Amino acid sequence: MISLGIIGTNWITEQFIKAVDETKTFELTHVYSRTLEKAQSFIADLKKQNIDMSTDLNDFFKKDFDTVYIASPNALHFSQAKLAIENNKNVIVEKPSTSNIQEFSVLEKLAQEKGLYIFEAARHIHEPIFKKIEEIVDKHRDELSGATFSYMKYSSRYDAYLAGKNPNIFTTKFSGGALYDLGVYTVYDAVVLFGQPEKVEYSAEFLSSGIDGSGSLTLKYPNFDVNIIIGKTKNSYMSSEIYFGRDTLVLDNGGDIHHLDWADDNKNVTDVPTVKSQNPMDSEAREFARIMLEKDSATYDKLLGYARIVNRVLEQARTSAGLVFEADEEK
User: Fold this and answer.
1) pLDDT of residue 331
2) What is the pTM of this model?
3) Of 103, 257, 265, 330, whose Cβ has the fewest other Cβ atoms within 10 Å?
4) In a 10 Å sphere around its CB, with 0-12 CB exposed, 13-18 middle and 19+ buried, how is residue 83 labelled?
5) Strand 52-54 relative to strand 199-206: parallel, antiparallel, unpaired?
6) CATH code for the domain of 215
């Protein structure tokens, strides 16, 4: 197994560690946290033993492990990933991997120069259910006439924001907001299924902090549009859809996809048989490890290409809406 260090001791890191344990792809050996208490509590909850713990990032990256998984606030991804690569570590970084395309380009170039891997952890595109969507789109590509993706989920941190607190996810300092937290899933949907859009327009509903609480995004392709609805300040139970003229593929969600239906022109709705991963991070853990062990450059280049386009689209969307992150000022 590949030795793994982690940055971040939150729920998503715990889910990733459970995924690598289930798939026997990576072995957790090192943990970085700002406090020793958090690291100890995290390791205890996972029932792990003999895990090296660090509270100093430079010290952490000097340790002997192969790959780091980064799940810190968005604005910290770039500096932590850069330091990791400079210390000869492969990187798996939660989406979005950077705050802007310039940062992404720096990481991509540095990893290439060092002969290392950098993966953006867009876990849902690796799941069997998404592979089924790709199969259907490819089969009916000649009839493809657009899509609508929706991912709106009331944030567990929004009440704290309304109470006058300043959660990271609702600040421009940490590159938060609806687009960069939930919208990235739907942009990945469009990019993987349809390619790079010709034009990007984002209309955002801004909070007083200057961040987007929700919004609507349009990706223009040569023969159709993709419309995206996202939000962290409200819930939506609207399905997502991919259109093929008279027929429609219905997804129960634009980001966390659990079920597919095929609806025809006569309003007949048929269940599309597929498989949903019990742990949604199993598939990406398995794929990242396989690519590294088999040195599968073709698949790696394809995934890196997706990530490059997605990060560019996200920045184009922000620019069109006038959404500025503090990281932009450091260019």
Assistant:
1) 57
2) 0.96
3) 265
4) middle
5) unpaired
6) 3.30.360.10
